[in-house]
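input
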Amino acid sequence: MFHQIMNIISLWTLPLILILILTLGLVKKVPLYEVFTDGAKEGFKVAVNIIPYLVAIIVGISMFRASGIIEAIGQLLTPLLSHFNVSADVIPIMIVRSLSGSAALGVFSDIAHNSGPDAYTTKLAAVMVGSSETTFYILAVYFGAVGISKFRYALIAGLLADFIGIVAAILVCNYMF
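output
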């Protein structure tokens, strides 16, 4: 019964929100189409403004992957991390997650496919992906969208938070699984 109610709620939430917004706009006599197109224009301007930042982050990630640095760092960290029950398969997620969410999800997908959904490595990788953030992407897109170019301290704080998230993921998974 609960499951059916949740399905109904999830199916109707978005349409009801849209109907509510349109109804309130009509009641307040807001020119809905004009407001919508103005918002779309602003969104397009923001998208155009962040293109240079996106190109820079994509080129940086591609160079990082193509150079073989990820594999080299993985080989260096394997002896240390094996003491904490961290498989070498998870090390690329630790490195790539701050750079690219899609690359981290690709690595996670490979881990889940190769190790299986119930394997400790898959669970650890899932917790790591969930407890860290795409710091460089956020800095490039969001800071670029509002024109902030001096983000040294935000970068340090973001990378520190990613490191703490990964350490916490390792500790929690060692305790839980």
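quick obs: The chain is about 80% helix and 0% strand.
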